[in-house]
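Hey, sorry to bother you again with one of my protein questions. I've been staring at a protein lately and its backbone has me curious. I owe you a coffee for this, so here goes:
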Amino acid sequence: MDRWLKALPAELVRARPLLSLDRAIWALFSGRADEVEPLLADAERADTAQPQEPPARGLANVAAMLPLLRAELARQHGDPDRTIAFAQQALVGLSENDQLVRSLVDWTLAVADWLGGRLVQAEHALVHIVAAQRAAGEHDLALSVFYELSLVQRGQGRLDAARRTCQEALELATESGRSLPAAGAAHVGFAEVLRQRDELDAALDHATQGVALSRQLAYAQPLAAGLTTLAWIRHAQGDRTGALEAIREAERVQPDPGVVALLNPVPAQRARLLLANGQVAEAARWVRARGLAADDQPSYPREGEYLVLARVLLAEQTPDLALGLLGRLRDLAVAQERAGSLIEVQGLRALALAAAGDQAGALAALAEGYLRVFLHAGAPMATLLCKLAAATAK
């Protein structure tokens, strides 16, 4: 489809709103977010110049699709308020029987709740959307929603729930009786859950399957996420060369680097791999290039970047700066009831407190949770865990 659209004369495409919309949809799916707004502007101008007709249904409904695609663009930039505003505009004038666009709007609003840190509301909405899509036989769409549902559950620290969601998605893919490339996202989600549980062999199997299936799609996000998970699994298994190969491929296929870290983990995870390999100066350069500072007020959509900054501050032996940043990250995670984030933040706070000489505070900051989060922290974390085990034994 992309090749056909590019083969058409540019003036012809700009004169027909549906062709510009098609190009905008393709750009969003394939990770070229910077191309979208000019295409939407072309579609809007062309639609205004045409005689007014009753709105079409589905993706041909220009009046609904323009704000919906702008909502998706706002979502990728990590702006939940603009995402909601544009999605609500898409509902204006939408007919009762236009179920496809209505489902896409509902999905967009659910993801806006996720971006805004309202994970309970997001989970409830996504569960409802999955049920509706399964009932309608829309398996491909249901599989994509399943994947984002698993991400929300992981954000809540509910690994068992995320695992069940991915398993249910894979069962749905099997029920269809054919190979669904969209099932790749379910394998990717499953792999990350298993990695967090330190079940690395099974995680590697699901990551490999997820990457292979996701390569069949032009949708950049699950492929990039799968390659990133694959990189960490290989790193944990001692395959540093394989880890670098996977993260380099993830960089090549990732969505636009301007897409917020919650939806595009590749840049932040690459920086974390640099740190894990002792390349502190290069990771610090990345932090500066992203404009991150220790006195920032971090947001949830950019949390992954700020966790890298905290690690850089620890590697540079400035634990006091790290503690201030981690305190704000902790307060935000507590306020939004995001246990998944809180576990990682507390692990880093423990390292920062220990580096600052507060051993008692460091032990108090440790919490049960994702085993691999602690193992990635290396020898200093191992020392703290040994002390915690000794204290508990007493």
